[in-house]
Write a structure and sequence with these properties.
By secondary structure, this protein is mostly helical. The protein contains 5 helices and no strands. It comes from Herminiimonas contaminans. It is found in: Membrane. Keywords: Heme, Iron, Membrane, Metal-binding, Transmembrane, Transmembrane helix.
Length: 136
């Protein structure tokens, strides 16, 4: 018999890589992971975005060239991914700043604040998507 059953204590095991697909993360954990991923995405693409901005501001011809590139649907999807990353990272950053001053650190409030982050960032991203793809 294992030691945990003898003592009445619960046994905690580390999660293996193969268990990740079966493990159900809480909403706050998903939000936190996406906050880190969106930050990394923004950080890695920022030099490329600044390079494109620099080249597009050289002349009217270069601006029109990059405007033509940005009108392609695949480039619009990349722009939309960057917009989502920024909006999610911004909203989740506010959540984390509030948690730094001990606001909403309990389990119930953490779940609610994670839900609020998604409820704000996803509709804002949808609005940008509608504008980006010409709905209005």
């Amino acid at each position: 018999m294992s030691d945990s059953l003898k003592t009445g204590k619960r046994e905690f095991r580390n999660i293996n890589v193969t268990d990740l697909l079966r493990y159900r993360f809480p909403l706050a954990a998903i939000q936190s992971i996406l906050h880190r991923a969106s930050g990394a995405f923004i950080f890695l693409l920022l030099p490329f975005i600044l390079f494109l901005l620099d080249k597009s501001l050289l002349s009217e011809i270069s601006f029109e060239h990059f405007r033509g590139i940005a009108s392609h649907w695949f480039v619009k999807l990349i722009i939309l991914a960057l917009v989502w990353a920024y909006l999610h990272h911004f909203c989740a950053g506010i959540r984390h700043l509030l948690m730094d001053v001990h606001v909403g650190v309990d389990k119930v409030t953490g779940k609610k604040s994670a839900l609020i982050v998604f409820a704000v960032s996803l509709p804002l991203t949808a609005l940008v998507a509608l504008k980006l793809f010409g709905a209005f």
